[in-house]
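Data availability excerpt. The first of two example chains:
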Amino acid sequence: GLRGVGVRHRSNVSVFLPNCMEFVVTWFAIARLGAVMAPVNSSLCGRPLRDALVLVQSEVVVVHESLWAQFAEIRPELASLREVIVVGHAVPGTHAWSDLRACAADGSPPQTVHFSELCLLLYTSGSTGKSKAVRIPHRYVLRQAQGVVDGLGLRPDAVLYCPYPLFHLDAAVMTVAPALLLRGVAAIGARFSVSRYWEEMRQFQATVFDFMGATLTMLWKQPPGPNDRQHKARLGWGVPLPA
């Protein structure tokens, strides 16, 4: 479906989606074509969003219907943009993601993609100015994922829980990719929530979770509850590790 709207080998494709199944499927499809995914922070709007999209000069953007208002505001300023794919209800002049997913294979051979080719353009935090796009090849994604598996001693039966955004390295490269290598499960929450964290862990039957920044401290400070030990977690990892 992506090939049908013009995504080619080494094309940049911007992805403006919240955490959802479509995010991961779109990433894998882009990677299979030898194209490059540039996932955009879903909280951006206005000039920062425009700057992020202009920076990578994507001709195709995949956007979620819940983020359409943010995207529509800056769409006229995207000179390189040719096609828009909407996850959810498409608007006139766009393609529906569900229609692309239903496309039959055209019979042409799959693209040969090398380890050294780019897989991702991940944005920096922008703490010293405008956010930059870091060029990440397939080799980095797979080797970093293998390092997580080996370093943490992860097993094929692992269920890796991560409630952080898929546009960030943590959820994509250090959760989804290790689960892919293990043939395990990546359990991706919609967003981090102190009050829902352990309930989601129970629902997913997660065995591994990771923390980032102050999240571990925030969880530790919650009052004790009767279900606190009702989970399958055997390992938590992250930085920083407070006393």
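And the second chain:
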Amino acid sequence: MNTLSIAPAPAVSGLADQQLHVRFVLQFAQFRLDVDVQLPGRGVTALFGYSGSGKTTLLRCIAGLERAQDSHLRINGELWQDSRTPFFLPTHKRALGYVFQEASLFAHLSVLDNLLYGFKRIAPAERQVTLEQAVELLGIGHLMARMPGHLSGGERQRVAIARALLTSPKLLLLDEPLAALDQKRKNEILPYLQRLQTQLDIPILYVSHSLDEVVRLADHLVLLDQGAVLASGPVGEVMARMDLPMAQAEDAGVVVEGCVAGHNSAYQLLSLSFPGSTLSVQVAHAAVSIDTPMRFRILARDISLNLERPAHSSILNLLPVTVSGETPADNAAHVLVRLDMHGTPLLARITRYSRDQLGLHVGQQLWAQVKSVALLA
């Protein structure tokens, strides 16, 4: 299988320049966007936040569709915008692909002709993605002769992403591409988006208000609130912070980049090891090859704590942990407890009553229990 590799602009070289330098200050009547971050030059960066946080406005600034009063944008060494020079590269000259909530395919063109529309406008010498590569990556080979009106929502979005890739972008912008889809269609397209994460050598900015999508797709997470950046960093680090609004969410938890250590075919249980540790967890999952990297998620609400290791329990995952912190939860009856498991942070949501009964304090050693059926991998 071919891996798509789109080289950065040759203007500036060196690993230090494989970053996105993003600074925008944009004042509206009742909203102010004020963002200044450096993001990875490859992989998926999720822009996450609730409605009105500024996600789409930031994406539009990056695309050049909104003109910020104070701005600087450099994509892997190539300057696209700098208000202090001043310099502004028009949208049509920015090597980017943009996919919106609606696929916006040309209704009068077949899938193949939709794909060729942008592809033909790229000079052959500048094409970094072939038609065959884009079609294979998005799994749309059987759709070439169809008209957009005969595609499902998930199929339309896959075609829209393939069309964007065929413009050989140096940056791919995805603005809530799953928002208009029902859960069945989301589950249909998510595996293809995960392939973008692993097989594209270009940066992807993915806007979403779905934490589940962020966990499955993102390498880096930018948390936005009212136009400002609350946090920016690797998704695992940001998700484990108790001082952020996400920790108060019902689906709060941590993301762990583990590795497949084994599979019990009789019980369909996959063993996933923790990074830098001999400890592992059992997950209800089909077989996956040994040593395959695999991300899994442990929700705070699915962790219970014990002072001693249970001798007999239906809960398979028993993990030795140390209490490293505590913070109040959004529910007055609950607290959030931060735990350290051999260097891997975990979060547990328990009642204040349980906290007091266990006498929890920083430095205390406990056993954390996690149901195998509760783990998300």
